[in-house]
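Usage

Read records sequentially. Each one opens with the input sequence:
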Amino acid sequence: MRMFFLASLAVVTALLVLPSGAQTQSRFFPLGTDATLECTWDNVEDPHNIELVKWTFKGKRLREGNRYEYSSEGTTHRLLIKNVQKKDKGTYYCTPKVSGDQELAAGQFIVSVGKAKLPDAPDPREINLSEGGTGSLNCNYAEAKERYGLKQYWTYNGEKIKSETQVHEGSSTQYRTYSDEQGRDWLVLSEVDVAGAGTYKCNYKYPDKQIFSMQFDVNVSEVRGPADVIRNVTVN
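and closes with the structure output:
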């Protein structure tokens, strides 16, 4: 009796193992990401009995190099495809060569490639600050950021914040950015002035050039001092 388990994952996704007897799996990988195909044979007593696993695509054997990387652990063998492109769409096979008389089934992956499927952006959040005060904005997109290797940056009124300290040239509002241990991205505003009010966005750029954004509409209220008191003054 031949038993075969087939699995695949993209970057840091969870391992998916098919039921016993399954030999084919369809997978989607976003453009520009790294993809891993994984084959596991559970009915091999000694992993060393698998002398090698041949990975093929469009009838040609895939060799390790700039685009492909092999790895194995026990009876599990993996193929890493770096920087997935449209030309990587198609059918892949993992074919084991085993010592002795034992026969193992080959695995088959039907791979499709396209743009990443972005979630719907949340509604803009309104933030009310006072002149001279401080405020913090944060975005939690940690899972996708790690999974797809996204580049994160902040914008003010549609323009990327370029200054190292000020949100823009016409404002004295100071800022700093950081990511916390949970992977959330923060923009901390201080010495806020009225000119610092506007639309702030945290943006995540995908390898396929798509951008996912979360918006904050920041209002800054002017702080007014006490009204002047007019006194009657008699000068001798």
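Summary fields computed downstream for this record:
- The CA atoms of residues 36 and 80 lie 4 Å apart.
- The chain has a mean pLDDT of 86.
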